[in-house]
Amino acid sequence: MASIQSSSAPNSSLSNLIHILIVDDDSTSLSVVSATLKTFSYKDNRELELIVVTVKNPFDALSTLRLKRGLIDVVVSDLHMPEMNGMELQKQVEEEFQLPVIIMSSDDSKNVILRSLEGGAAFYIVKPFSKDDLKNVWHYAVAIKTGDSLTIKAIEGSREPSSSTLVERLSLEDVNSATSINGEKLSRKNGRKEERKSTREDQEVDSQPASKKPKVVWTHSLHNRFLLALNHIGLDKAVPKRILECMRVRGLSRENIASHLQKYRIFLKKVAESGGCSPEDLSGRDPRTYFAPSQLFMMLKNAQQEYSRRVTRGSIQPGRGGNSIPALGGSSFRNLNSPNQQAPSNNSMLQSPYGQSRLFGNANYANQANQIGSGLESSNYSIGANMPSHGAVIPNSPTHGTSPMQMYHPHNQARSYLQNLGSPPLINRFGGVGIQATNYGSGDGDIGIINNSLNTINNYVGIRVTPDGRLIGSGHMQLNMNELSSGFSDGGHPCLMNWARNGNMNAASIGFNIAPANYVAQRESFSAGFEGANQFFPPAPFTDVYHGNSTPMLLPPPPPPPQHLQLGLGNGGQNDNVFGLMNNSPHILGGNSNQQPHIGHGELNVSDMLWEPTNNPPAYQLPQGVDQMSTLLHELLTPYFLNSLHIDDDTPWNEQPSSQA
DNA sequence: TTGCAAATAT
DNA sequence: GATATTTGCA
Fold first, then answer.
1. Separation between Cα atoms, residue A277 and residue A271, nearest integer Å
2. What pTM was computed for the model?
3. Closest CA to B1 C1' — which residue?
4. Which of A88, A94, A625, A629 is the most buried (most CB within 10 A)?
5. Residues 444-483 of chain A in contact with strand B via CB under 7 angstroms
6. How, if at all, do strands A3-6 and A49-55 pair?
7. Residue A286 DSSP label
8. Of A176, A488, A151, A426, nearest to A290 (Cα)?
9. Using CA atoms in the order A227, A228, A231, A233, what is the torsion angle rounded to 10 degrees?
10. Nucleotides of C under 7 A from a protein CB
11. What domain of life does the UniProt record list for this protein's source (predicted)?
12. A215/B9 CA-to-C1' distance in Å
């Protein structure tokens, strides 16, 4: 029943074998997938041998899995099959074998895709697939076999013997071939894997629970999952238990999460207080191309398409001073929605948030050069992150008379999220995180242009922004917008997020710039520096994507109650004019007022924005360990964290991610 | 349950 | 010695 084809000589050791079971009633599809995957395994310099097992119906798939219990690493299944559809198969496979199932189908309807992902599909590829789609499958399989997912799997012990063998025999070449970061790190990584291995081995061999808990390594992908959970719940409401439920990672304990949450909060606080990273923290790191974890692919793809669609159709609202600012809202962070926000419907992803006074998480979809980097133009202000533009540098020059047609079109974007996997770093493709204001200060026409400066050397988390376009990372150096494209640590490739090489939790270097539009108009700066083969992260649609009620991960709670006003932006939502609050808030969050002097007229300070006006008591109490600055930073940084992940990156989250070969 | 901080592992 | 993670405790 099952046809087994090995991509190379059959005598290689099990450690180098990747078994993929492909299930499809269409034999053409079977052979295409099979053949394509094999080409990847041929090309893969990790010397991994691919064993493809193809079956034509789900029942054969199940019996093959039983027969080869523990041998198959990944299942790729067609969705629509006569006897049992792919999702039913997935359910069974998950239940019985705890194996990831990738769903493929020609059905590209959002509902189906999301349902599949919610149901637990590892990811979803739409037929006819491109080579890159299948390359992803390959990468995923490699990740499953060698990567971080096994970190947790090793702990949970949910997989069968052979997989432990796989883990144990993790080849060092895998790690070494990953990239040339530096020898020290690599050896450390190897060390970790070895350690993991022995932990698992001990447990298995002794078949008694170790007295000590195996250490959880917070890999990038695990951290990513954590961040997703945080975003769904809202940082202010995220407690370990809820995060745990949301993350749904077997083997991960509440304590693990509590600890990590603690660490993450410390990180945010540190960022908030320091205003960013020190140059030493950031220098010398080379930006990498990152992939997002598999489950994000489709959501992001959908979101991106949706955003493309909306932007293409949407109006471009002119900013003041004759500059047009692409306006596109859509908060990725539900808890930051305007208090007046209505609950998203199932298709809320499709809802245009135009005209709503979102506060954060707005996304712009910037495309070609000369589009304004980011920000939602609303009557108030917004902080947001741009959608990535496929292959385009996104400068912050304002768009004069931008036509919607200049915006990104979904047609060529549709698959871009999967394209370039494994390709060398491309140019900066990200729009910025930023703050923009149209009602800034006295309302005399200043327009906040967001400038997201992401630079591993001389940018900081720029908390303070000045109207003349300068960024002042509190206590640190100023950033000249013209320098944004220079000084990157790796041949000029901008880098968005970098964790400190030394393991410290250092912030991404993100700069905010608020400047009068006409000023910015003369600038030539990037709106952001973020590179990667897979720049697709749209922060906004995340929450909106979720609906239904099956998978917690995909099912955020309903939007916050109206009284939930985030960020201390005012007075219970009655007045969204944030900037009216600016001048009466000299405080710096965390009490480090010595670090950030009072900002006078015409200057903006994020802290100011976050600070509750003294005559307005906070609308709600933030939980312990969460402050407004942390919340803000979380919102701002998360998209970048998420975006900077390799699908198979098992680098600990606070280390520099490894790069794809 | 949570978050903090001490203890322990790496 | 510095960090990351677990564990104990209020």
1. 7
2. 0.34
3. A241
4. A629
5. none
6. antiparallel
7. P
8. A426
9. -110
10. 2-8
11. Eukaryota
12. 9
